[in-house]
Write a structure and sequence with these properties.
By secondary structure, the chain is an alpha/beta fold. Helix content is about 50%, strand content about 15%. Strand 5 and strand 6 form a beta hairpin. The longest helix has 25 residues. The protein binds zinc ion.
Length: about 220
C-alpha cells in the first residue's frame, strides 16, 4: 500500500513512519531527507540544491519530483511506500498521480496527524534526535535505552535548534498555511484518515494500525 503522511512538528510523524515500516515493510520516504542527501553529493546539481536549502529557498518542483520518482523506482518500493513532505503543491500532486496511474497504482491512505500548537511546544522541548540516522526520541515519552545514545546506531542524541518555542510557533503557522490547500487537493482523490496525535505514541500508532488493517482488509489484501 502507498501512504502519504501529513502532520506538523511533534505530531509523531517520524515515529509513526518508523513503526509502519517495521510492521508493514513500506519504506519511509522523506522528501526533506532525500533533498539533504542529494545536497551532500559532489555534483553540480547537488551543490545547487545545497545552496537553495541553506538560503531557505524552495527547491523547484520539477527537481523534487525527479528526485522523488527516482527513489520510488527502487526495489524496496515495490510493495508500497510512505511519503512524507510530498506532494507540496498542485504540480507535485499531478506528477505523483500521473506516475501512479502509469503503474496502475494509487495512494491507499493519507494520514493527517492532528495536533494543537500548545502540545507541539510542550513536546518539542523534550525532543532529541540522533545526529547520524535522524531517529527521534523524547526524554519523557520515548526514551532511548541508554541516556543520550541512539538505540539504532549508537550515535549521540542532540536537540535541534528549530525545537525552540518561537521557532515552533512560526513553523506551526506556516504548516497550516501550506498544508491545508494540499489536504483539500488530496481529499478529492484519496481517502484521508484523521489521526488524533494528542495522545501518546502507542495510542497514536494503534489508530494508524487499525486504519491500515481495515484498508488492507477492504482491498482484499491480508498481511
Ligand atoms: Zn542513530
Amino acid at each position: 500500500m502507498n501512504i502519504i503522511l501529513i502532520g506538523p512538528q511533534a505530531s509523531g510523524k517520524g515515529t509513526m513512519a518508523q513503526r509502519i515500516e517495521e510492521e508493514f515493510g513500506w519504506p519511509q520516504i522523506s522528501m526533506g531527507k532525500l533533498l539533504r542527501k542529494e545536497a551532500g553529493k559532489n555534483t553540480k546539481e547537488g551543490k545547487w540544491i545545497g545552496k537553495l536549502i541553506n538560503s531557505g529557498i524552495i527547491v523547484p518542483s520539477r527537481l523534487t519530483t525527479k528526485i522523488l520518482l527516482g527513489r520510488l523506482e527502487k526495489k524496496d518500493c515495490i510493495k508500497g511506500f510512505q511519503l512524507d513532505g510530498y506532494p507540496r503543491n498542485i504540480d507535485n500532486f499531478r506528477e505523483l498521480k500521473r506516475y501512479l496511474a502509469k503503474k496502475g497504482e494509487t495512494i491507499g491512505l493519507v494520514f493527517f496527524l492532528r495536533l494543537s500548537k500548545k502540545t507541539a511546544i510542550r513536546r518539542l522541548g523534550s525532543r532529541i534526535q540522533c545526529k547520524k540516522c535522524e531517529r527521534i526520541y523524547n526524554t519523557i515519552t520515548l526514551k532511548p535505552k541508554r541516556r543520550g545514545v541512539c538505540d539504532r546506531c549508537g550515535e549521540k542524541l542532540i536537540q535541534r535548534v528549530d525545537d525552540r518555542p518561537k521557532a515552533i510557533a512560526k513553523r506551526f503557522k506556516l504548516f497550516r498555511k501550506q498544508t491545508m490547500p494540499i489536504i483539500k487537493l488530496l481529499k478529492k482523490e484519496y481517502k484521508i484518515a484523521e489521526i488524533n496525535a494528542e495522545v501518546n505514541v502507542e495510542k497514536e500508532y494503534t489508530q494508524i494500525r487499525k486504519t491500515i488493517k481495515s484498508a488492507l482488509h477492504a482491498s482484499g489484501a491480508f498481511t
